[in-house]
């Protein structure tokens, strides 16, 4: 009989293992495998059964290959038999075709993380099967395609929501694609949480490319998000302004903007959040940092992508908003317009006393009365990351960093003509520096070109 071999993809490298020598595989803990390799090995074992192939495997990625992406329930059952210690399973770019089994599948109580990325679902019968096979999931990531001409969408919606609601151990849920069918899934989850038919244990929740984020933050959705530790939203929102109205193109604050989070949001809705990531995928949306921190008093990490950011709250709804006491330690603004820049820099320096990690990537700064400068005094900073920063029509071409707690005070420029440690040097007239002063910075990243940095 010819030697049986299995091609395994691990960290981007292909290695050929001889399955007649099981010692090669007995110690493997993290691998990736193409679907056709899995199917080929299964066919070989039907002729000559072999012992469990991956007795110590904990993390597995199954990847669609070039010859087939058709995945059957019997394939999943066979795979679970050969991975008795598996904890993390990722299924990628597969077509879930045949859910029929000749026997009741055993429960895989050791599997705690399941990711289904770019999966085509052809029948709603898969969901009771997945629910019975993986009853102890802690984390679930879903990215499904609803196949044209396939099952009724309402059955898929109900199958997905029943699967989620029926898992009493689930603490992390991420829905990556939000298109036809997904809004109704969200409705089912909100209704079940509100009515108490779902004992929701979620602490981490993420929704990508959604067009109904306000529904999640309305009163009915409060029970779904009020107990969360972390929330990730990719906002799909369009706002059409009056084309005949004139605007100052150099001042984004003059454009009509939609405020997020909404001004009428109950202050208890996001009170337990410690981590958030909001990304905009649409027209202009404006978050207020002061309003956001009042809504999230326990926030420690915030990432905002693609917004027009200001400090002040809406004067119509919150004219006398008091500054929030905050323990925010990490703030990242990516691809953002920053208006009221003088207030913004003052806010970073004086109103965020525990801030130790600051990231500004592709940031356009407006309303700055002088050269960009941050003075954190003797504060210890874990991370300073600046890339593609522009103020007015000038792009910051260098970084001047002064660290006060070194044995000698010194400054460093990213692209000076002359440098020497221990002596304060200023860049040439052709440069536009960004000045930062702090005690000590553990990690500093700078690039005047955003695309080169990313």
TrEMBL record:
Domain of life: Eukaryota
InterPro entries to which the protein is assigned, alphabetical: LRR_dom_sf (IPR032675)
Matching Gene3D superfamilies: Ribonuclease Inhibitor
Protein name in UniProt: RNI-like protein
Organism: Hesseltinella vesiculosa
């Amino acid at each position: 009989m010819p030697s049986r071999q299995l091609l395994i993809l691990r960290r981007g490298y292909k290695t050929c293992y001889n399955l007649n020598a099981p010692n090669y595989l007995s110690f493997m803990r993290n691998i990736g495998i193409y679907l056709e390799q899995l199917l080929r090995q299964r066919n070989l074992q039907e002729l000559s059964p072999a012992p469990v192939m991956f007795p110590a495997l904990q993390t597995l990625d199954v990847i669609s290959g070039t010859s087939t992406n058709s995945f059957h329930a019997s394939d999943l059952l066979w795979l679970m038999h050969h991975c008795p210690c598996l904890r993390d399973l990722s299924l990628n770019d597969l077509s879930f075709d045949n859910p029929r089994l000749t026997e009741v599948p055993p429960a895989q109580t050791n599997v705690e993380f399941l990711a289904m990325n770019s999966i085509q679902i052809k029948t709603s019968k898969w969901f009771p099967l997945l629910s019975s096979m993986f009853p102890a999931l802690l984390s679930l990531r879903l990215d499904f395609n609803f196949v044209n001409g396939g099952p009724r969408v309402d059955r898929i919606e109900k199958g997905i929501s029943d699967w989620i609601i029926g898992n009493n151990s689930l603490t992390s849920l991420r829905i990556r694609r939000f298109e036809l069918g997904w809004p109704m899934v969200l409705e089912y989850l909100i209704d079940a949480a509100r009515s108490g038919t779902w004992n929701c244990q979620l602490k981490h929740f993420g929704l990508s490319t959604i067009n109904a984020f306000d529904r999640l933050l309305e009163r009915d959705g409060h029970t779904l998000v009020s107990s969360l530790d972390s929330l990730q939203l990719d906002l799909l929102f369009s706002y059409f302004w009056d084309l005949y109205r004139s605007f100052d193109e150099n001042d984004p604050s003059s454009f009509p903007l939609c405020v997020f989070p909404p001004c009428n949001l109950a202050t208890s809705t996001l009170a337990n959040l410690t981590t958030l990531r909001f990304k905009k995928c649409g027209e202009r949306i404006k978050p207020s940092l002061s309003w956001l921190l009042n809504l999230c008093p326990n926030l420690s990490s915030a990432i905002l992508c693609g917004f027009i950011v200001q400090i002040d709250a809406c004067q119509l709804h919150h004219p006398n908003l008091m500054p929030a006491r905050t323990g925010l330690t990490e703030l990242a603004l990516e691809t953002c317009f920053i208006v009221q820049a003088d207030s913004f820099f003052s806010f970073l320096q004086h109103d965020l006393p525990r801030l130790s990690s600051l990231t500004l990537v592709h940031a356009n700064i407006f309303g700055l009365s002088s050269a960009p400068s941050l003075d954190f005094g003797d504060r210890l900073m874990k991370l300073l990351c600046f890339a593609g920063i522009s103020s007015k029509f000038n792009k910051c071409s260098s970084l001047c960093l002064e660290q006060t707690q070194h044995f000698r005070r010194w400054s460093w420029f990213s692209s000076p003509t002359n440098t020497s440690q221990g002596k304060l040097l200023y860049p040439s007239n052709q440069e536009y520096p960004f000045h930062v002063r702090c005690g000590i910075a553990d990690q500093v990243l700078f690039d005047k070109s955003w695309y080169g940095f990313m």
